[in-house]
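It is worth pausing here to work through a concrete case rather than discussing structure prediction in the abstract. The textbook approach is simple: state the sequence, then state the predicted structure, then interpret. We follow exactly that order.
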Amino acid sequence: MADKMKALFDDNELLNSDVSVLIHNDFADWNLLTDGNSITGIIDWDECVAGNPIEEIACWSTFFEPERIKPFLKGYFSDIPIYDHFDEMFQLMRLRYTISKMALRIKRYTYEQTPFLESMIEKGKKHLDELIEIFQLNDCNKKI
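Step two, the predicted structure:
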Protein backbone atom coordinates (compact mmCIF):
# COMPACT_ATOMS: atom_id res chain seq x y z
CA MET A 1 0.00 0.00 0.00
CA ALA A 2 2.87 2.38 0.79
CA ASP A 3 4.25 1.91 -2.72
CA LYS A 4 0.84 2.69 -4.21
CA MET A 5 0.60 5.84 -2.11
CA LYS A 6 4.09 6.92 -3.12
CA ALA A 7 3.20 6.40 -6.79
CA LEU A 8 0.24 8.76 -6.39
CA PHE A 9 2.61 11.58 -5.44
CA ASP A 10 5.53 10.87 -7.80
CA ASP A 11 5.47 13.32 -10.70
CA ASN A 12 1.75 13.94 -10.29
CA GLU A 13 0.73 16.85 -12.51
CA LEU A 14 -2.05 17.76 -10.10
CA LEU A 15 0.58 18.79 -7.56
CA ASN A 16 2.27 21.18 -10.00
CA SER A 17 0.64 24.54 -9.57
CA ASP A 18 1.32 28.04 -10.81
CA VAL A 19 -0.91 29.35 -8.01
CA SER A 20 0.83 30.14 -4.75
CA VAL A 21 -0.62 32.00 -1.79
CA LEU A 22 0.21 32.23 1.89
CA ILE A 23 -1.47 29.34 3.67
CA HIS A 24 -1.76 28.86 7.41
CA ASN A 25 -0.99 25.12 7.21
CA ASP A 26 -2.64 24.37 10.56
CA PHE A 27 -6.07 25.83 9.86
CA ALA A 28 -8.49 24.52 12.49
CA ASP A 29 -11.25 25.90 14.68
CA TRP A 30 -8.93 26.33 17.67
CA ASN A 31 -6.78 28.73 15.64
CA LEU A 32 -9.71 30.94 14.65
CA LEU A 33 -11.03 33.94 16.56
CA THR A 34 -14.70 34.83 16.03
CA ASP A 35 -17.32 37.25 17.22
CA GLY A 36 -19.83 34.39 17.16
CA ASN A 37 -20.84 35.01 13.55
CA SER A 38 -17.70 35.79 11.58
CA ILE A 39 -14.01 34.97 11.72
CA THR A 40 -12.27 38.03 13.16
CA GLY A 41 -8.72 36.68 13.33
CA ILE A 42 -6.46 33.71 12.82
CA ILE A 43 -3.67 32.80 15.26
CA ASP A 44 -0.74 30.34 15.40
CA TRP A 45 1.00 31.08 12.09
CA ASP A 46 4.21 29.17 12.92
CA GLU A 47 3.61 26.55 10.20
CA CYS A 48 2.62 28.92 7.38
CA VAL A 49 4.03 28.33 3.91
CA ALA A 50 3.42 29.39 0.33
CA GLY A 51 1.26 26.88 -1.47
CA ASN A 52 -1.87 26.10 -3.38
CA PRO A 53 -5.08 27.30 -1.65
CA ILE A 54 -6.48 23.78 -1.94
CA GLU A 55 -3.80 22.68 0.53
CA GLU A 56 -5.40 24.89 3.17
CA ILE A 57 -8.79 23.28 2.62
CA ALA A 58 -7.26 19.80 2.67
CA CYS A 59 -5.42 20.54 5.91
CA TRP A 60 -8.59 21.88 7.56
CA SER A 61 -10.51 18.78 6.51
CA THR A 62 -8.17 16.47 8.43
CA PHE A 63 -9.43 17.75 11.78
CA PHE A 64 -13.11 17.02 11.26
CA GLU A 65 -15.59 14.48 9.96
CA PRO A 66 -15.62 14.42 6.14
CA GLU A 67 -19.26 15.60 5.98
CA ARG A 68 -18.28 18.91 7.58
CA ILE A 69 -16.41 19.99 4.44
CA LYS A 70 -19.57 20.34 2.32
CA PRO A 71 -20.93 23.55 3.91
CA PHE A 72 -17.37 24.91 4.11
CA LEU A 73 -16.88 24.42 0.36
CA LYS A 74 -20.30 25.85 -0.44
CA GLY A 75 -19.35 29.05 1.36
CA TYR A 76 -15.81 29.11 -0.02
CA PHE A 77 -16.89 28.72 -3.63
CA SER A 78 -19.76 31.20 -3.29
CA ASP A 79 -17.11 33.95 -3.51
CA ILE A 80 -14.66 32.49 -6.02
CA PRO A 81 -14.94 30.09 -8.96
CA ILE A 82 -14.12 26.44 -8.25
CA TYR A 83 -10.61 25.44 -9.30
CA ASP A 84 -10.01 23.17 -12.29
CA HIS A 85 -9.60 19.56 -11.10
CA PHE A 86 -10.54 20.62 -7.56
CA ASP A 87 -11.92 17.26 -6.41
CA GLU A 88 -8.89 15.26 -7.58
CA MET A 89 -6.42 17.79 -6.15
CA PHE A 90 -8.34 18.08 -2.88
CA GLN A 91 -8.42 14.32 -2.30
CA LEU A 92 -4.73 13.95 -3.18
CA MET A 93 -3.72 16.78 -0.84
CA ARG A 94 -6.10 15.46 1.80
CA LEU A 95 -4.33 12.10 1.63
CA ARG A 96 -0.93 13.78 2.01
CA TYR A 97 -2.10 15.83 5.00
CA THR A 98 -3.86 12.88 6.62
CA ILE A 99 -0.71 10.75 6.43
CA SER A 100 1.36 13.58 7.88
CA LYS A 101 -1.10 14.43 10.66
CA MET A 102 -1.53 10.76 11.62
CA ALA A 103 2.23 10.28 11.91
CA LEU A 104 2.42 13.29 14.24
CA ARG A 105 -0.62 12.25 16.27
CA ILE A 106 0.61 8.69 16.77
CA LYS A 107 4.08 9.90 17.77
CA ARG A 108 2.57 12.41 20.18
CA TYR A 109 0.30 9.71 21.62
CA THR A 110 3.34 7.79 22.85
CA TYR A 111 3.84 10.44 25.53
CA GLU A 112 0.46 12.20 25.74
CA GLN A 113 -2.47 9.82 25.95
CA THR A 114 -5.41 12.21 26.13
CA PRO A 115 -9.03 11.71 25.07
CA PHE A 116 -8.66 14.59 22.58
CA LEU A 117 -5.66 12.98 20.90
CA GLU A 118 -7.43 9.61 20.85
CA SER A 119 -10.41 11.25 19.11
CA MET A 120 -8.13 12.87 16.53
CA ILE A 121 -6.47 9.50 15.81
CA GLU A 122 -9.89 7.89 15.36
CA LYS A 123 -10.94 10.67 12.95
CA GLY A 124 -7.70 10.17 11.07
CA LYS A 125 -8.40 6.44 10.76
CA LYS A 126 -11.81 7.21 9.24
CA HIS A 127 -10.23 9.63 6.80
CA LEU A 128 -7.58 7.09 5.80
CA ASP A 129 -10.19 4.38 5.28
CA GLU A 130 -12.16 6.71 3.01
CA LEU A 131 -9.07 7.81 1.08
CA ILE A 132 -7.86 4.23 0.66
CA GLU A 133 -11.20 3.47 -0.96
CA ILE A 134 -11.19 6.62 -3.13
CA PHE A 135 -7.72 5.86 -4.49
CA GLN A 136 -8.27 2.07 -4.54
CA LEU A 137 -5.07 1.51 -2.57
CA ASN A 138 -6.03 -1.70 -0.83
CA ASP A 139 -6.76 -4.67 -3.06
CA CYS A 140 -8.34 -6.55 -0.16
CA ASN A 141 -10.59 -3.63 0.84
CA LYS A 142 -9.67 -4.24 4.49
CA LYS A 143 -10.30 -1.45 6.95
CA ILE A 144 -7.25 -0.17 8.80
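Step three, interpretation. The chain has a mean pLDDT of 87. Residues 86-109 form the longest helix (24 residues).
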